Amino acid sequence: MTDVDDTTRPRISDTPLSVDALLTGTDRPDCGALAVFSGEVRDHHGGREVLRLSYTAHEAIADRMIREIEAEVAAKHEVPVVRVTHRVGDLAIGESAIVAVVRSAHRAEAFAALIEVVDAVKHRVPIWKEEWYADGTSEFVEGCSIAEDGGADHDHEAQPTR
Fold first, then answer.
1. Global pTM exceeds 0.85
2. 47: Cβ–Cβ under 8 A, 6 or more apart, which residues?
């Protein structure tokens, strides 16, 4: 089951993300649960002060893969609405890097689908994050995208590579 009204919405955006925009057209009388996630840029990582992030992606492949992940998660959890958008470009502290929404009849399916769709995007989609630090340096954060095992054991709190 997928949201049939959502075929043309881009899954990758170079403009600020909005949960409200992602929710547009998702209201359904058969859904009593709405789960929402916004992953926002924080000001620290690994004990270092972060000033901003830059996300880059293979946008055509990333868009296609997010669509596939949305459909997989919707079918697996039998939920009618699964939407994700990921940001690319430079992001300031507090900006959303990824937003996701799930609607379902009950909260358990909505929460499970939301966790799975966000994790799948982080683990499988070719999107890379570079952190810019207060000391004037930057580093690409060791990620889990395109890992052979899907990044299932990746530590998202791991220190950046040096």
1. yes
2. 159
- 103: left (phi > 0), else alpha (psi -120 to 50), else beta? beta
Length of the chain: 162
Rounded to 5 degrees, what angle do the CA atoms 36, 131, 114 make?
15
Average pLDDT per consecutive 10 residues, the chain (162 residues; last block may be shorter): 67 97 95 98 96 97 97 98 98 98 98 97 95 96 60 51 42
CA distance 129 to 148: 19
Q: Which CATH class is domain 12-140?
A: alpha beta
Tokens linked to 99: 């937003």
